[in-house]
Each structure stands twice: as C-alpha cells, then as structure tokens.
Amino acid sequence: MKSVVPRGSFASVIGGLLSGFLWLGVPVLLLAQAQKPGPTIRFGVAGISGSNSHPFVSKQLGLFNKHNADVELVAFQGGTQLVQAMLSGEMPLGLIDGPPILAANLAGANLVFIAGNVNTFPYNIVSKSEIRSAQDLKGKKIGISRFGSASDTSARLALEREQLRPDRDVTILQIGGQSERFAALRAGAIDATIVSPPFNLVARRLGFRDLIDISETGIAYPHLHVAARRDFIERYPEQVSRFLKGFIEGTSYWKDPAKKELITGAVARFLKLDRDKDREQLDETFRYYGKIFPARPYPSADGMDYALEVLKKSRPEAKNLRARDYISNRFIDELDKEGFLAQVFRGL
C-alpha cells in the first residue's frame, strides 16, 4: 500500500506539513489500491489533521479491503475545494462539515449527508502566552483556514460565546491549512489560531497557551459528515454500503483500548509523527477522537439545523431551505437493522 503523504520529521510537520501537496485547487491522491469489482470510490478529506485521520487509518488497517470496497483517498486544503470537486463529479463522497454542502444545495446541487463522524466542534484555540483569557483577544488577530470553513464557523462561535464580535473586536484572517496557521502564529503574524488536537499539545510545549476548548460548548454541529452525490449513491448503493462498513468498523477501533497501538501507528504515518518522540500527541489523538466519534454514526439532524442557521447569516436566501431534506439515513438504518453496528461496537 503506497502512501504519498509528505515526508519529513515532526518538526517539518509544524513548519509545513502540507508542503508536499500541490495546494492549488488540485487534489493529490494519498493512496492507491488494486482494482476490485465495482467502481473505485474516491473519497475526499478537507485537510491533514487528527480529526481527518480516521479514513486513512481505516484504509491502512485494511478495513475497506475487508468489506470489498475499493477506496482512493484524496486530500484538499479545505471544504470549499472539496465541494467544488464533488460538484464537478470527480469526487462522489467526502468528509466535510455542514454549511458548504448546504450552500451548494442552495445553488442547485444535489448532495446529501449519509453518515456522521464528528457531531461537535473538535477544535482548540491556541494563542500567544501573554493572552491569558478570551477577553484578551480583543483587538487581536486570529487565523483560520478559509472563510466559510469549519475553522471559521467554530472560531466565530467561540468568540461570540465570549461576548466578542468577530471581525469587529477580533480580526479573522484566512491563512490556510493547520501547519500554515501554526507557522503564522510562531512568526507573530497572528495572535491566535485554531487547531485540532493533538496540535494543542504541540502549542503548549512550544510555550503557547491552550486558550479555549471549543468541543466543551456541547453544541451539536455536523463538523465531519460523510456527504455524497445523490446520483452516485442511487447508482452504486452496494459499493457505498461496503465503504461505510469499512469506515464504521474503523470507528470501533478508536473506542477499543486493545486497538490503541494499531490506531496510533496509523495516525503517526498520516501526520508524519514519530511513534516514540510524539507519543503524547498520539495518545491524546486516540483518547480525544475515540471519545468524540459516535457508535451510532447517523448524520446529526440537530447539528444540521444549526449549520443552516450559520449559513443564513451570510446567505439570507437560505431562509426557505430545510436542512433535514439533505439527510439520508438509508444506509445507516440498513446497517443497524442487519446488526452490523451492534456487531462492531459490541462491548465498546
């Protein structure tokens, strides 16, 4: 199994984890597989992060192969690029948050959510050490990936929770991927940024402050859902079901302490971490996402409603959109009824 994830030490991850990819709107294939019956499922992820490591782990552990699904993973710099690839027909499925998909449907697309993987905001805001509280962010600059992305949405929510007005009290700058944001923080170009665990631990070790854990808000939000082109799932339902079996069985591994070394080893390869030197980050990744990933991976209806409210702030024409019209529980219902969920999550 060949990987073309960028090479380098953990230090190079911080300075330029994504530098090996051609981040110009052109996706780079992460992995290739031998041909199998049925179409290859090209599955997009919106960046390199701990939360996005799950499908890579499932593939590394052979779980897609186990269920006879031919899966090709593709990395993008953000959700906007992933949606564009889905609209073009190049990418039938993707792991993405709610608003970009809802916005695309508002413009006439036919994309639907078929599974939920992270139903809250798995982000931390880290800052310069002299920023001791959220209120100290007033008049400062915070880095996100792109406007309209999950990092943008969650940063704005966190600021509003602290009675700070985004774009007025705090300047929000789009910087790029997680490593680019981290590099900007280290260079002093911004005062704070948003990262996915375990990179909050990296920030602490380098003297930055782990300021806000956004996941503690408890708000339902479709941060990472499996979105699909409706025409693809109608044409190839068996292949989609096989894909989801591998994806969901992979989720069960994150909840099983006996699988910890398998998971952390695969995550280390994905994030280019050293299994010994970076043990703390790998252990935190396993703990954090094992807690967040759901055992019943239905799309979050409440989260989708909230995502629509977020979209309406920038797109008033979305007022008549019904978010739940773009949720399909068909596949998860079938896997639940046939006992697959109970089987893979037994005792976990």
Structure description:
41% of the residues lie in helices and 15% in strands. α6 (150-161) links the parallel β7 (141-144) and β8. The protein folds into 2 domains: 10-120 and 221-344, Periplasmic binding protein-like II (D-Maltodextrin-Binding Protein, domain 2, 3-Layer(aba) Sandwich), CATH 3.40.190.10; 133-215, D-Maltodextrin-Binding Protein, domain 2 (3-Layer(aba) Sandwich). The chain has 348 residues and is α/β, with parallel strands linked by helices. It has a 6-stranded mixed sheet, sandwiched between helices. The chain contains 15 helices and 11 strands. The protein is globular. It has helices at 10-16, 53-60, 63-66, 79-88, 98-106, 150-161, 178-187, 199-205, 230-235, 237-254, 260-271, 279-292, 301-314, 330-337, 340-344, and strands at residues 28-29, 41-45, 71-75, 93-96, 111-118, 124-127, 141-144, 171-174, 192-195, 209-213, 224-229.
